[in-house]
Amino acid sequence: MTNKVLSVQKKSNNLDILFVSTTYPSNDKDWRGRFTANLVDGLSCVKGININIWAPPGVLPENVRNVAIETESNWLAELMVKGGIAHLIRTERIHGVTAICRLLVYLRRAYRRSAKINIVHINWLQNVLPLLGSNTPAVIGVLGSDYKLLSLKGMPFVLRSILKQRKSIIAPNAEWMAPNLNRLFGDISEIRPIPFGVDQRWYKITRHAFESCPSQWITVSRITPKKIGPLLEWGKDIFRDQHELHLIGPMQEDLKLPEWVRYHGPASANELCETWFQKATGLITLSQHDEGRPQVILEAMAAGLPVVASDIPAHLDVIQHQKTGWIAKSSTEFTEAITSLSNAETNHTIGNEARRWVEDNIGTWHDCAKRYIHAYQDLLEVNK
Q: Would you tell me which CATH number, out of the four given (3.40.50.2000, 3.40.190.10, 3.90.550.10, 3.40.50.300), belongs to the domain 15-197+364-382?
């Protein structure tokens, strides 16, 4: 993605941004933190800004500098391999708490080293905590798992103490989070939903789902009981002769899969784009997890792939039932969805509506970069 038009208007030197994320793909085949790499790539195309990233090691655009020192970088890489802090908290609570403490210490040092930064762009609410005592303006991205942190006793109070010290924009990646964020922080911070983008290659996919039988349905997800939801129960009588279920993603928790599930392990974005999304009849996500706005759903919709999803806010935020996708609240409704979307005409109609919705409301990573640049500029204006 290139950008020859968008630029930051600043009278003197370039705008210095510290971009903070605990996920970043290690290479082109790594599925982890792919949205971070896409966003950084989009921002790197903008004239007038210098991006300094504190994140796990990976391939960066030429004009982006990783400011994590070797000790921090190595630890972040190990944390990625272990599944991240949220996964550690769920599976190894003591190690998870230890990881949180270490993260906050490392971030505190990184923020102090970057004292002259104009704006800090932070992904995940917990990464705001080490800013205590500074007044650097901040754009704070909120996804699903960190949004859940707000239910912890005392967490909103602590975050308010830090936000009061600076100008800030809290930017959830989905509109459904905005009302509660406004209630908690709207008096001291602007709440501005900023959706992520979708890479242009997903929009260009040509599907050939009905050229073979049986139909191939895919679920792309980390494998945990909450991420899989009732899929194994609801699908046991469906995925036999006429329909196949292909499960794609890393096994992060011990979950016994029945023999009718075709499990393939994790897949890169290239594999999904060039193979799976082209031949799949639809994407299924019955997650009961704390989702923000799942990127894989947006990519599927951009590809014209119908999505069958569970009834949670993150899915209702992007799917209009029987128009841009299908919401299934029960086993009966799930069966109805699979049956209806197995009709080629219905499948293509809903898939095309889904693609149009994503084009109109989400756009590309170029569009996403514009949204964040406007947020940076607005923070600079209020700090003049």
A: 3.40.50.2000
